[in-house]
Amino acid sequence: MAATMLTRADIQALKDYVSAPGNFGQNQAESTVRLHVTHSNLKAEFIELRMDLHMTVEAVKLKLGTHCGTLASDMILHLKDGSGKLVAILAESHRKLGFFSPEDGWVLHVIDTNPNSLSARGWLEDTSKVQKYVMSDADYDARENTYRRHKAQKQKDDPEWTAEKELCMRRGMPYVPSAQKEVEEDEEHQAAEASRLSVGARCEVNPGGKRGCIRYIGKCAGLPLGYWVGVHLDEPVGRNDGSVKGKRYFECPLGYGSFLRPDTVNAGDFPEIDEFRFSDEDEI
Q1: What is the helix (H) or strand (E) element at residue 63, kind and residue range?
Q2: What integer best gives the mean pLDDT of the chain?
Q3: Where does the CAP-Gly domain start and stop, copy by copy (predicted)?
Q4: Are 215 and 241 in contact (CB under 8 A)?
């Protein structure tokens, strides 16, 4: 027999049918009821559960216990209607839930009679009451690949290393120590130092003795306030291509550009050198 091919219209109609209220996943069996659950030790109405009307009161208590931490033997159940009026106390363990004719939206209120229950005194809602695990320094130091070990190694290589400094390097930005930040809140910071330099002049950058040509002098959006010098380096020891955060200040190949404070740049007769003896400090 040839297979029947469904058209797009047939498939969409099937999807609409499945997702429509009352069908498949949205269906509620006639023997189930949706009840809200509240608890004497918990502040909020904490859950809505579907209960089978054929369940015994004991089975209902056991199911509730898995959600609220109260043992069935410590539980008194009150059934309330939608307005909050008490309908029945579910005291007979063998009695079926359906005996009480609950309706969707009614409330099962759990009263916990055990003062040492998991739910008592806010233990299930107030995390500040939970004892936290605290690792000793000795145990932490014995672990590998920790931040403390990473920091120690970095500071061994660079005594002035900080996490902020490393983030600046990774982002291609100049690192400004915290002690200098207050000084550099002035928009004219190092204006005098910048005035002795000129675009097109050969220069040497220190520390490090890197050489190149000055291509830009001025302020840079995205960098700390004050004046900056853009240098096209002779060797690919820079960190950019003459741009900062998408804004271009001069043209050069990637890795040849660097932005530095004017006081680190000396202009003069500095011809190109072949020796590779550079440092990455105070630049991007």
Answers
A1: helix 57-68
A2: 81
A3: 226-261
A4: no
The pTM assigned to this predicted structure is 0.37
C-alpha closest to that of 211 among 184, 238, 246 = 238
| Between 106 and 208, the higher pLDDT residue | 106
Torsion (CA) 251, 252, 254, 258 in degrees, nearest 10: -90
CATH number of 188-267: 2.30.30.190
Give the E-state strand segments of 40-196 in sequence order. Answer: 47-52, 75-80, 86-89, 107-112
Q: Is the pLDDT of residue 279 over 60?
A: no
Distance CA 41, CA 120 (A): 6
Which helix (H) or strand (E) element contains residue 151?
helix 147-157
**Nearest to 109, CA basis, from 164, 58, 35:** 35
- pLDDT band per the 50, 70, 90 thresholds, residue 1: very low
Task: Compute the distance between CA of residue 110 and CA of residue 53 in angstroms, rounded to an integer.
Answer: 18
Fold exhibited by the domain 28-122? Ubiquitin-like (UB roll) (3.10.20)
Residue 21 has pLDDT above 60, yes or no: no
In the predicted structure, residue 64 carries a pLDDT above the cut 70: yes
Cα dihedral 58→61→62→65 (10° resolution): -160
- How far apart (Å, rounded) are the C-alpha atoms in residues 234 and 256? 7
The first and second tokens of residue 113, run together, are: 């009679």
Number of residues that this document lists for the chain: 284
Per-domain residue ranges for the chain?
A: 28-122, 188-267
Token readout for 36 is 């809200």
pLDDT tens digit sequence for 126-143 = 556 566 677 788 887 888
Q: What is the pLDDT of residue 258?
A: 95
Return d(Cα 110, Cα 57) in angstroms, integer. 12
Q: What is d(CA 69, CA 202) in angstroms, rounded to the nearest whole number? A: 77
